[in-house]
Amino acid sequence: MRERATRSNPRYVRYRTDSRGAAAYGPKDSHCATEHTTPTVRHSIAMPTHLIAHIAFLACGGLSCIAVQAADSMGTIKTLKGAVHIERGAHTVDTQVGSEVFANDRVVTGPDSSVGITLRDDTLLTEGANSVLELNKFAFNTTTYDGALDATIRHGSLSVVDGKLAKANPDAVRYSTPTTTLGVRGTEFIIEVGGDGGSGH
């Protein structure tokens, strides 16, 4: 099921999904040496540190190397209140402001808690109390703005402010609940999942 946010106010739409699946609209260094060898003498010349770094930068393809190293990071936690942790594979990771989030992370908030995440394309995700958010997939090309974003709110609430990806390619962005897939066309919206919500807990 795919729904479009096309209510009267396209900038602010609220989706609400209950345990029966009904959805409704609501209000708004390396080290390097050069060696010269003769039959009896061996010399080592140490390069300056800044030259080593420059050579390593070029060997790695310059900025493209940095982009590859950071490609797995979806974004960063910018705000945090109360009890928030990340389930990453078989591990539970404590969070703090500045912590990175990655694809396949599950972000869980406790009572009276919330967390704000800024993705690399400037998408803003704010997860409310008693919520479970799964970050399924994220890719973003900072030059072309191509990529994909797929997230599931299993339980609780998620407020979204669209970033560059959604604005350039809205069809590449998908938010889901246990019962619904949302095709978003607004720039700001809230998704709420009540009841059991299929949280898996």
TrEMBL record:
The chain crosses the membrane at residues 51-71. Residues 105-195 form the FecR protein domain. Keywords: Membrane, Transmembrane, Transmembrane helix. This is FecR protein domain-containing protein. It comes from Pararobbsia silviterrae.
